[in-house]
Amino acid sequence: MSPRSHRLRPLAAALLVSAALAAPLAFAGPREDAQADNAARVLSEIQAIPESAIPDKLLDEAKAIVIVPDTVKAGLVLGGRRGRGLLAVRTPDGDWSNPSFVTLTGGSIGFQVGVQSADVVLVFRSERGLDSIVNGKFTLGADAGVAAGPMGRNASAATDGQMKAEIWSWSRARGLFAGVALDGAVLSIDDKSNEAVYGRDTTPRMIFEDRAPQGASDAVAKFRDLLAQASAGARQRRADDPAPTTTPTMPVAPADAAAPTPAADAQPQTFQTVEPADTPAKGEPLP
């Protein structure tokens, strides 16, 4: 091998390493892909049944959505809740961002025995609490009001003071999907999982603004796309079925109402007096 070939080999290796570092690879660990797959499954199953779906208005106007599949609640007098899931936020153009990985933890005190696994869904109606999540952690009920969410695509969302709650929450256990109160639960960013998917030193803001060193894996991108499809469907249904307008209707008289009085200009019948009663009678003189 010529001396020139020996000089070119280190150069070629360096170029390959540089290209590999610069390329926005898309990969994740098996745990992160499994979490994304489970979150997509939960969203698909909930939205497939209109009677237990997230209401279209909430889904269409949501600022952020969190889905934590298989949250485990266990306890013996002292209870705890722990789960891992995904958080996606609405972008300025109305689409959905790549999701960040999060953890949901919370404790309770009371008489309880057993272990229960449940899927948890959170819908944020304002952006006030998102900064707290991005900067570290967020306590439901303390940093923002949380309420049990209504169900059904056409469910009235006028509960809780005309939808003044900033976060709506649902839980699904043993096939049943219903609103649930999660006051005191803490939502935190899972930095380790984010780095496994999007690259080293990735922050949540970089993920939401599509500035992460690496692209999302196929499983993570599938969850984002599925969320976009569900939101688009909710928006389309709202456009196809606008709120009914109120039209004035004529009152209907009850069945036992008195018969109407004849109009004043009705034609007189035979021998009916047409002059007023106080008008003097007119006659011809006798021959």
Write the layout of secondary structure elements.
Elements: H1 3-22, H2 30-47, H3 56-61, E1 64-89, E2 100-124, H4 130-134, E3 137-139, E4 146-148, H5 159-163, E5 167-173, E6 176-179, E7 186-189, H6 191-198, H7 204-208, H8 218-240
Parallel strand pairs: 4-5
Antiparallel strand pairs: 1-2, 2-5, 2-7, 3-7, 5-6
Structural summary, described in words:
The chain has 287 residues and is α+β, with helices and mostly antiparallel strands. It has one domain (22-240). 31% of the residues lie in helices and 25% in strands. It is built from eight helices and seven strands, in the order αααββαββαβββααα. The protein has helices spanning 3-22, 30-47, 56-61, 130-134, 159-163, 191-198, 204-208, 218-240, and strands at 64-89, 100-124, 137-139, 146-148, 167-173, 176-179, 186-189. Strands 1, 2, 3, 4, 5, 6 and 7 form a seven-stranded mixed β-sheet that branches. α2 packs parallel to α8 (218-240).
